[in-house]
Design a protein that fits this description.
Distance between the termini: 35 Å
Number of domains: 2
Mean pLDDT: 83
Largest sheet: 2 strands, antiparallel
């Protein structure tokens, strides 16, 4: 399901991340119940953000936005490297100092392997 939402917002901060991405923070004006429902549906989904200050988008800019054809998946990494990077980010944000990433990675991979093996029909 393709969904979009357009809100007036103020960019209130950003945080550069180790994986060369940015965490952006916006504050919106008051929202309607429908907007809240739509935002909630989009939670954890990949999408596009276009932020512009002080003026409306021109027709040409709107056409440029409609013409964007970007593959959201990172093609520069193999699926296994993407999985390892994702597990690293989870470990980094939730880790306790008691476990090294190498051990965490091995445990998570073993859980995943068992999960896949459980799907095998004899």
């Amino acid at each position: 399901m393709s969904d979009k939402i357009i809100l007036t917002a103020q960019l209130t901060g950003f945080t550069p991340r180790k994986d060369k991405t940015l965490s952006l923070r916006f504050n919106t004006q008051e929202y309607s119940e429908e907007q809240l429902i739509r935002v909630n549906r989009m939670l954890d989904q990949m999408g596009f953000v276009c932020f512009k200050t002080d003026e409306r988008f021109t027709s040409d800019e709107m056409d440029d936005l409609d013409a964007i054809e970007v593959d959201i998946l990172d093609k520069s990494k193999t699926p296994s490297k993407r999985l390892r990077s994702s597990l690293y980010m989870v470990w980094k944000t939730t880790r306790s100092e008691e476990i090294e990433f190498k051990e965490y990675y091995s445990m998570q991979m073993e859980k995943f392997i068992r999960h896949v093996q459980d799907q095998i029909i004899d």
